[in-house]
Amino acid sequence: VHSFPTRRSSDLKYYTSYEVQPGDTLTSIAQKYTANSNVSVPEYISEVKKNNELSSDNITAGNYIVISYYSNEYK
Predict the structure, then answer these.
(1) Contact at 8 Å (CB) between 68 and 47?
(2) Which residues contact 7 (CB under 8 A, 6 or more apart)?
(3) Contact 10, 38 (CB under 8 A)
(4) pLDDT at residue 15 above 80?
(5) Residues contacting 36, CB < 8 A, separation 6+
(6) Taking the CA of residue 66 as centre, how many other CA atoms within 13 Å lie in the half-sphere pointing to its CB?
(7) 61/24 Cα distance (integer angstroms)
(8) pLDDT digits (tens, 9 = 90+) for 44-59
(9) In angstroms, rounded to a whole number, what is the distance separating the alpha carbons of residues 69 and 32?
(10) Is the pTM of this model over 0.85?
């Protein structure tokens, strides 16, 4: 008998390009994309800043940033 670890919804991580919308903040994006994960908002913001070489929390509508999201579906 083999036992396999159960997959939680946050096990699979993907990256995508995201167009910053008017009114978006790193916090609002983080809250949306960490909702079903075990990643905290500050951790997520830190990763987004690092991946996009952002020196501040300021993002501009119309710009594209690379963000991660989590899914239990293999894509």
Answers:
(1) yes
(2) 72
(3) yes
(4) yes
(5) 9, 10, 70
(6) 10
(7) 7
(8) 999 999 999 999 999 9
(9) 9
(10) no
Q: 38-55 burial string, b = 16+ CB within 10 Å, else e?
A: ebeeeebbeebbeeeeee
- Nearest Cα residue to 36 out of 2, 65, 73, 3: 73
Q: Distance of alpha carbon 18 from its chain centroid, rounded?
A: 10
Number of Cα atoms under 13 Å in the Cβ half of residue 49: 14
Contacts of 35 (CB under 8 A, 6+ apart): none
- 69 phi and psi angles, rounded to 5 deg: -145, 165
The residue to which tokens 């990643």 are assigned: 39
- Please state the length of the chain: 75
Sequence letter at residue 5: P
